[in-house]
Design a protein that fits this description.
Blueprint lengths: L5 H11 L3 H10 L4 H10 L5 H4 L6 E11 L2 E11 L2 H4 L2 H16 L5 H6 L7 H12 L4 E10 L1 E7 L9 E7 L7 H11 L11 H17 L7 H16 L5 E2 L2 E5 H7 L4 E8 L9
Antiparallel strand pairs: 1-2, 2-3, 4-5, 5-8, 6-7
Helix pairs in contact: 1-2, 1-3, 2-3, 6-8, 10-11
Protein name: Elongation factor Ts
Organism: Bifidobacterium canis
InterPro entries: EF-Ts_dimer_sf, Transl_elong_EFTs/EF1B, Transl_elong_EFTs/EF1B_dimer, Transl_elong_Ts_CS, UBA-like_sf
Length: about 280
């Protein structure tokens, strides 16, 4: 049998646009004959994944899980994108997302790069995702990834409708006591999309920008200069209440904050993450 070299695979991929695994299989079947391999690819109707890569993949699902770990529990969530919700809601696509997540967990992945590099049954997650374009007939990609750890991790997966897979996943890590209100906090994260856990977590440059905008706005409104600092602080506090989880008003009882919920049970929130389909920073990529 002729050797199936990387150069040979690259040549056929470039000439057909087919995925790596499809090219390998075709070359193996053709005993290394490039022309025959190309015929096999055409005969089987293998989609040209490369031609799809310019298409937007902003639909999809989010797979998530919690596993026991040395320090308590670890929560994982991964977004897998497709072009349409028609594909996203198929059991095969949902199962594929679960497989990608399982491979990421097994590899103890920490970020998108380590997810894509994670070993899979056929090679790597990156190769599997490339091959998925032929399987689903659409551009498929890994979007966002999150991993949090703590004594306890709670996950809430939100569906926009019963027939669609989860489109928002909220995860929160707490101590043991905090786990009593973790579900309520996860619901809050899903609904209100906080950006930071505490005000100390807000980057200094963002605080400074908000302070400057509030100052300029107050002066433009004709407020007396001597009371502008007080108005600015009020507007900064409003910014924190909107964007900081522990300072947000609890949606089920606005008379208390999420921070109050944790105080009532003597617990702590340690970290959180929120993924929403199509909201990755480079969602069009």
């Amino acid at each position: 049998m002729a050797a199936i070299t990387a150069a040979l695979i690259k040549q056929v991929r470039e000439e057909t646009g087919a995925g790596m695994m499809d090219v390998k299989k075709a070359l193996t079947e053709a005993d290394g004959d490039v022309a025959r391999a190309k015929e096999i690819i055409r005969t089987k109707g293998i989609a040209a994944a490369g031609k799809r890569e310019g298409r937007k993949a902003q639909e999809g699902t989010i797979a998530s899980t919690v596993i026991d770990s040395a320090n308590g529990q670890t929560g994982y969530a991964i977004e897998l994108n497709s072009e349409t919700d028609f594909v996203a809601k198929t059991p095969k696509f949902v199962d594929f997302a679960d497989t990608v997540l399982a491979n990421a967990v097994k590899a103890n992945a920490d970020d998108i790069d380590s997810v894509l590099a994670a070993p899979s049954a056929e090679g790597t997650v990156k190769e599997d995702v490339e091959e998925a374009a032929a399987l689903f007939g659409e551009h498929v990609k890994v979007g966002q990834f999150a991993k949090i750890e703590g004594p306890k991790v709670e996950i809430y997966a939100h569906k926009k409708s019963a027939e669609l897979p989860p489109s928002i996943v909220a995860m929160i890590a707490t101590d043991e006591a905090g786990s009593q209100v973790a579900h309520e906090a996860a619901l809050q994260i899903s609904a209100m999309d906080p950006k930071w856990l505490t005000r100390d977590d807000v980057p200094a440059d963002i605080v400074e920008t908000e302070r400057r905008v509030a100052t300029e706005k107050s002066l433009a409104e004709g407020k007396p200069e001597k009371i502008v600092p007080k108005i600015v602080e009020g507007r900064l506090n409003a910014f924190f209440k909107e964007n900081v989880l522990l300072e947000q008003a609890y949606v089920k009882d606005p008379s208390k904050t999420i921070g109050d919920l944790f105080k009532e049970v003597g617990g702590q929130a340690l970290a959180f993450a929120r993924l929403e389909v199509g909201k990755a920073p480079e969602a069009d990529a």
